[in-house]
Amino acid sequence: MQEICSDAGMSAGNLYRYFPSKEAIIAGIAERDRAEVAQDFERADLSQGLFSVLEGMARHHFSVRSIEQVKLCTEVMSEARRNPEIARISSAFDADVRRWLTEMFNTAESRGDIPQNADITGAVEMLMVIADGIWWRRALDPQFNAETMIPVFMDVVRHLLLRPATPKVAGKES
């Protein structure tokens, strides 16, 4: 709450004049972030190529976003472990991002940018894990340079989306 108040330039007492609870403040932050990410996906122009679009989005969210935004987001993620309402808000945001990525990859598949049998579900899940890891590393390590990770991230994205899905063997996990 101290970081939120500092960023807002007001005391906690004043902040609570605008929001009835900590959960409402976090819901407002999450909604603002969700709306921004939704706009990113809406503006995505796949005619520029799927991987070019993803690289631009990665650069914006991993490197360009301010460290204050990154730290605030990781604080919300931490609070989600303790607070069921914040966990619900975070889970809904994650579900939206998964849906938007899946829709983008399905469109890319129909355009022929990725193979018809790409493991879109697996790729989306792994990209979510990697994105969370980059944000945590950025929040915790002042020496971490996310910009240098973007080419590595893009290599992983290409590997995940350009290889065919691994067939599942009955009775065995792949």
Produce a short descriptive summary:
The protein is mainly alpha-helical. The chain contains eight helices and no strands.
Write up this protein.
This protein has helices at 2-8, 12-18, 22-43, 50-64, 67-82, 84-111, 120-140, 146-162. By secondary structure, it is mainly α. It has a single domain (2-6, 18-162), classed as Tetracycline Repressor, domain 2, CATH 1.10.357.10. The protein is elongated and about 55 Å long.
What is the arithmetic mean of pLDDT?
87
The profile of the biggest β sheet is:
none
- List SSEs in N-to-C order: HHHHHHHH
CATH architecture call: Orthogonal Bundle
Number of helices: 8
Overall 3D shape? elongated
Corresponding CATH superfamily = Tetracycline Repressor, domain 2
> What distance separates the N and C termini?
43 Å
Strand content: under 5%
Low-confidence blocks of residues: none
Q: Which secondary-structure class do the elements indicate?
A: mainly alpha
Under CATH, the topology can be stated as Tetracycline Repressor, domain 2
Summarize the amount of helix as a percent range: over 70%
Task: Draw up the topology in text.
Layout: H1 2-8, H2 12-18, H3 22-43, H4 50-64, H5 67-82, H6 84-111, H7 120-140, H8 146-162
Helix pairs in contact: 3-6, 4-8, 5-6, 5-7, 6-7, 7-8
